Amino acid sequence: MTDLEAMARAIRLAGRGYPAPNPRVGCVIVRDGLVIGEGWHEAAGRPHAEVMALANGDAKGATAYVTLEPCNHHGRTPPCAEALIEAGVSRVVVAVEDPNPEAAGGVARLRAAGIAVDVGVAADRAAVQNERFLTAMRLRRAFVTIKVAMGLDGRIALPSGESKWITGPAARREGHRLRAEMGAVLVGKGTLLADNPYLTARIPGVVNPPTRVVLDPQHDLPRDLNVFNEAAPTVVFSAGRFSPQDIAAMLFSMGHTGLLVEGGAGMIGSFLQADVVDALEVFVAPKLLGHGKTWLEVPLLDRLDEPARWRLRRTGRRGEDVQLSYRRRR
Fold first, then answer.
1. 102 with 131: CB under 8 angstroms?
2. Confidence (pTM)
């Protein structure tokens, strides 16, 4: 098994968990070309990938492949760099170094213990998988994703305000996955009052429900709304007005690395105008609503010949619907 093959396997394993606000991490341990242990970070507060992989058996003299630099601090769990040293591995291959100053230093600690360390194998692919965490650490704010569900004509609701459900079950499951991946979800006051959503991630594999973020500057939202129930934690911003930059920065200071923005055109437009949006996840249903609200109603371009701000990451079918994933050009 080559270094690239082993790291590719570690990256696939990392995709199994929902560890927000932590990064996705996978680990594969190889001796004499054979996998003797593997693991992934399932959820914040659960064992890290390296610890899970080492629990499979004796790793003395083996090579550990890890998608992110092993942590070097005591958080909810002990340092993974220390666990690898105690296990007696002879080599560690790391895809991406950890930009979090609180956890970084694992590579240096491993090398100081006499363990050979190589960094950069499949780095691009591992970085894409961890874009939420890596971007948040670099910008010191939550990675912001906007989710839109619309008809072919860009409408997100009928004139009556009815919007359940524009998209089908498969697209809605993907929406729940995005909530779990980001770790926090925000909708505007209008959506809360019109739809009374739970804003939970009701899919298998979610250990920690995403935090629900509510803007209630007048402190007049009814407290019997579903968003205030006990199914998930809820953060309420209720003192004055908050800019999108403030929200993203304050959530980061509270430990959140991702934010999924759902809801109406007003909320979406404010985040786009503030230029704090990192990703767009657009779901298009095969429906023509004809009249009703559109998903964006604010000016963003002065001229059509301005450079495109968004690049298409991927497309996919979700039942009868289509998902378009865009990322901000930087």
1. no
2. 0.91
